[in-house]
Structure formats: C-alpha cells, structure tokens
Amino acid sequence: MFPEVDRVLVSEAQIRERVGELASEIARDLRAELDAQGQTLQDEDQIVFIPIMTGAMIFVADLVRQMPVKLSLDLVTVSSYPGETVTSKGAHLASDLPENLAGKHVVVLDDILDSGRTLALIKRVVSERKPASLRIAVLLDKKTNRAEAVEADYVGFEIPDEFVVGYGLDYNGYYRNHPEIAVLRPDAIPARDG
Ligand code: IMP
Ligand code: MG
User: Fold this and answer.
1) Is 99 domain-assigned?
2) Domain carrying residue 145
C-alpha cells in the first residue's frame, strides 16, 4: 500500500485470525467472572472497554464487532511519541479518564506494549477508580524494552524490537491505515531520530 514499507511482520490474515481468538478469550473470561456474580454478558452497566487513542482505534473496532457483549466504549488519549520519533519520551494522559469505573469490569486496549510507560500509567489511574476487575489487551508486545514492569493479560503477537507501523500504529501520524504490521525502509525514518 505504501512504497516506504520494507517488510511485513504480521499479515492481514494473521491479524484477522488472532483478533477473533482474542475476542473469544476476553468474552469467555468476562463471562466466567460475571457468572460468578450471578450476571451475564448482556447485563447493562458492567463492562467498559477503554481503548487508548489513537493507536488502538483499528484494533478495538475489529475486536468489539466480534464480541456479543453489552459494553460501553470510553476512549482515553495518552501521548508518548510527539512527532518524528521512534523512541518513548514518557507517557502523559492527554484526556480525562472515564468517571464511573467503580465496580465495573474494565478492559484496557492498546496497539502495542513497548516501554510499558503508557499501560503502567493507565493501570495506575484506572485502579484508583476501584473497578471490579481490570484486564489489559494489546495487539503487539515488544518484550525487550520495558522501562516499567507491566504485562498484558491478552497479547496478539510478540514482535522483535523493531519500530512498526500499520493497523493503527503510526510513524509521525502516518501509516495507521496500512492494513498489516510492517517495518518502514530505513530511509523513510530520518537519521536524526533515535
Ligand atoms: P510504551 O509506553 O513505550 O509501552 O509505548 C506504547 C505506545 O507507544 C503505544 O501506544 C504506541 O502508540 C507507541 N509505540 C510503541 N512502539 C511503537 C512502534 O513500534 N510503532 C508505533 N508506535 C509505537
Ligand atoms: Mg499509543
């Protein structure tokens, strides 16, 4: 789709299959948890999905459409990669957190877990709201770069320590609409970066 793409790490077909599996796993676990409380996946006011914008938008759109679950979506925005950069500069909350999370089953979604700063921050602030449960699902996990100790409960794919774009992930705001997970040609990423 873009000439700047060098290599594909995860194809569209692989993503489609794995997102379907994740939807089933998350629904199964939520069902078990609600069951224990005498509730069902169709009951109101129980389940809140929190996608972290902007990277999680395509992942969440595909995921929730495969889940027969009565859920509400509450977006948060975390900023960590301003402009032309491929390394984490620290995470900060750039929007309000949903107010009414107390007693709810919360699933936080992100495109990728890298340094862990983003999800550590979200986990901390969501926990303060006293949810009944808190789960983290990510499409990608780069295991190598943790600056903060945080793990996801659901991982689509583990990938090596390479900067990737597509399926929601950007470089300098672009390539989010590339349909697969790909690595850009080195000359597409300015050398001053890193
Ligand atoms: P962390 O805070 O370092 O764990 O990074 C998480 C955020 O950084 C993700 O939500 C992404 O938006 C962004 N990010 C991390 N690695 C990549 C990458 O390889 N490509 C594009 N964005 C990335
Ligand atoms: Mg992000």
Assistant:
1) yes
2) 11-160
**Is 114 a catalytic site residue?**
yes
| Angstrom distance (rounded) from CA 151 to CA 160 | 16
Give Cα separations from 27 to 13, 68, 160, 174 (angstroms). Answer: 22, 8, 28, 32
Q: Is the CB of 164 under 6 A from ligand 1?
A: yes
Mean pLDDT over residues 185-190, rounded? Answer: 90
What are the pLDDT digits (tens) for 31-74? Answer: 999 999 999 999 999 999 999 999 999 999 999 999 999 999 99
Other CB atoms closer than 10 Å to residue 8's CB: what's the count? 16
What is the number of domains present in the chain?
Answer: 1
Six token digits for residue 173: 């705001």
User: Is position 168 within any domain?
Assistant: no
**Is residue 116 in contact with ligand 1, taking CB distance under 6 Å?**
yes
Domain of residue 23, CATH code: 3.40.50.2020
Residue 170 lies in a domain: no
Out of 45, 114, 170, 193, the active site residue is 114
Residue 4 inside a domain? The answer is no
80 Cβ below 6 A of ligand 1: yes
